[in-house]
Design a protein that fits this description.
60 residues; alpha+beta; two-stranded antiparallel ribbon; 2 helices; 4 strands
């Protein structure tokens, strides 16, 4: 069960670090370990690399 603070927590783009709250961001599971990853629309459009903080998987 999620707490209220978890529901309101701001998330950041894994590539550039900006807050994605209220933006057209993507949320997906890491292909290797399943960790939740957030990316802003600008980084997705530019195919900026990201690295999973848990397993080190790198993707565009």
């Amino acid at each position: 069960m999620s707490s209220t603070s978890d529901k309101r927590r701001d998330h950041s783009c894994i590539s550039c670090g900006i807050s994605i709250s209220g933006t057209d961001a993507a949320k997906f599971d890491c292909p290797e370990c399943g960790t939740l990853i957030y990316r802003c629309s600008k980084c997705r459009k530019q195919s900026n690399l990201y690295e999973c903080p848990d397993c080190g998987f790198t993707g565009p």
